[in-house]
């Protein structure tokens, strides 16, 4: 009887190990939309949009063209669609 209980518990533990517990990544809006403004090191002045979590809305900024982060959207519409509710 004890061995059947042990096998059952072991099977449950192993099954739970296969449940997907994905870590937060840079593609996760909960992470991406909270990243700080990153203008980059290059000198272009590309109009872009970023989410400002303190204000709860998207704000325009000028992106240098390289070395940015995921909180960088080509339009206000895209920024709002990705970061709404964050």
UniProtKB/TrEMBL annotation:
Every BPTI/Kunitz inhibitor domain range:
33-83
Identify the keywords attached in UniProt to this record, alphabetized.
Answer: Disulfide bond, Protease inhibitor, Serine protease inhibitor, Signal
Provide the GO MF annotations for this entry. Answer: serine-type endopeptidase inhibitor activity
Q: Does the keyword Signal apply?
A: yes
Say yes or no: keyword Iron present: no
The residue range of the signal peptide is 1-21
Q: Which SMART domains match?
A: KU (SM00131)
UniProt GO cellular component terms:
extracellular space
Q: What is this protein called?
A: BPTI/Kunitz inhibitor domain-containing protein
Upper lineage: Eukaryota, Metazoa, Ecdysozoa, Arthropoda, Hexapoda
């Amino acid at each position: 009887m004890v061995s059947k209980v042990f096998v059952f518990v072991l099977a449950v533990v192993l099954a739970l190990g296969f449940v997907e517990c994905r870590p937060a990544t840079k593609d996760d809006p909960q992470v991406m939309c909270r990243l700080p403004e990153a203008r980059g090191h290059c000198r272009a002045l590309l109009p872009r949009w970023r989410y400002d979590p303190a204000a709860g809305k998207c704000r325009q900024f000028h992106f240098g063209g390289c070395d940015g982060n995921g909180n960088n959207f080509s339009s206000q519409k895209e920024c709002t669609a990705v970061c709404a509710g964050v």
